[in-house]
Each structure stands twice: as C-alpha cells, then as structure tokens.
Amino acid sequence: MEDYAPSRYKMLEKIGEGVHGCVFKALDLQRGNKEVAIKKVALKNKFGNISLNTLREIKTLQLCKNEYILAILDIYPDLIGLSLVLEYMPDTLYGRLKSEANPLSRQQVRNFALMMLKGIAYLHEAGIMHRDIKPANLLISDTDVLKIADFGLARLHFPDEESRLYSPQVSTRWYRAPEILWGSQKYGPGMDMWAAGCVVAEMLRGVPLFAGTTDIEQLAIIIRTLGSPRLNEWPDLTSLPDYNKIGFPNSVGINWENLFPSCTHAVEINLVSNLVVYNPKNRLSAAEAAQHDYFR
C-alpha cells in the first residue's frame, strides 16, 4: 500500500454517506483527471478495536476482479483511518428506480438483472456471501454497466463447516431472506439469491416486493404474499430459532400474475418465483439464474 500524498487526488464533493463511511467524488490528477470515488472508512470501531467491516470490505474488493464488481484502485491512510479509492459510478439502481422521469425500460431491467446475477455468481464461486444485495448497493455507470458495491457485510462462506454460525443481523430488511428473519445463523449464499429476486421484482414492479417496517411485519407481508410456508417443502423451518416465537394467520398467498400487472411475459415472473422461494435449497443459484430463459 503506497502512501500517496493526498495531493494526488483533488476532492470535489461529498456524494454519499453510509454506515461504514463517507464517499467523495474526486479527480485522480496522476491519471489525467480521471473521476474516482474516495470512501473514507474508520480503521477502528467505537470500542477502539480494528473494524471487521472495514477489513472485510478491503479484503473482498482486493480479491475480486470482475466486470460486475466495483474495482478498488488504491488505498491510502488518512487521519481517521483509510481512504479507499474506487471506480466512480454516477448512479445507483436505487436512484434509477426513484426516477419517475426516466423509468427503466424492459431491456434495461433485463440487462441490469443479468449483470447483478453474474456478479453474484462470481462472488459465490469465490466463496463470498455479499449479505447486503439491494438497489442502493448496485452502482450504474454512465454506459449502463451495473456493478455490485459495498462489501462491509461480506463474509466468506464455508459450505463444509456445518457448525459455523453467521450473524442474523445482516442485509437490509426489505431484502432479508425468511430464514434470517426467523433467526437462522446457519444460512448460505441462498440468502443473496432471495435478495436478488426481490431486486428483480422491484425493477419489474417499480415498487419493493416486501416493504415491512419491523422484522415481524416483514415476515407477515412475505407470508401474506407467498402464502404460508409448507413444511413438506421446507422441513428445516421448524428448527429455526424464532419459528415458535410468533404465529401468523394462515394464508394462501397472492397469484404471481397479480403482483406483476405490467408483465406480459410469464418468463420474467418465472425468474422471480424461482428466486423468492421459502426453502433456500430450492432457490436458483446465481449461475443457474443467469442462464434463465428470461435472458435468452
């Protein structure tokens, strides 16, 4: 890690603020005034310990070399911790979805969905769970290339280690898989696939698929929408830590076609319905989803 004098980068403006740091737009004066994003992250957490989120993010970004994963260009120390120099992306999928003036075309939805799935497939192949797939963490370039960003919650996944526990306090609630809402600490990459299905659904619908304000309301909305989970389809459900803590009214669910009134092709809905599935073992993998008929 070279210690560049900050004079190499000319700070322009603050463009974002997340849980793990502030992001600024800047110019890289050594690379012909190339636009970059500089994310300032604390090296220590509030307890004075080295921040795991910061280390995870840096390690993941350094490991990943893929056209659909945000590239890290440089790191330099600063007063509060570290500055990560990242590719500059002018937009997020969240921003695009909020734009009423320019709604996403069907072709853009398909392209963005495929890029996201290919990026997730690359991560899962490398043994990495992102754990916070959502529109705000999917960045879009001025040439409409989508890249996955924000690896502060990323974790290596060890499928052979049955005893390994992961925190259930991950992913943003609207995109949080049901096994995690029921308290599971033994989840796997399928939790990213549930989130990916929710993102595709949101692109197709223009509004989030499940928008709860608490974890219990989130589960209630999922059950009302998908119908009550059947134990013959998801036998592991009863062993989840919070399964018996609250009961929900029995539900038959809503017809998928009614959830996507503007979708004229069943193939779009079919992709979502094979990702947004209760049993994580029955969800398509990212590699399978990227081969779905929707993209042919």
TrEMBL record:
The lineage of its organism: Eukaryota, Metazoa, Ecdysozoa, Arthropoda, Hexapoda. Coiled coil: none annotated. This is Cyclin-dependent kinase 20. Pfam families: Pkinase. It comes from Drosophila lebanonensis (Fruit fly). GO terms for molecular function: ATP binding; cyclin-dependent protein serine/threonine kinase activity. The gene is LOC115622809. One of its GO terms (cellular component) is cytoplasm. It is found in: Cell projection, Cilium; Cytoplasm; Nucleus. GO terms for biological process: cell division. InterPro entries: CDK, CDK20-like_STKc, Kinase-like_dom_sf, Prot_kinase_dom, Protein_kinase_ATP_BS, Ser/Thr_kinase_AS.
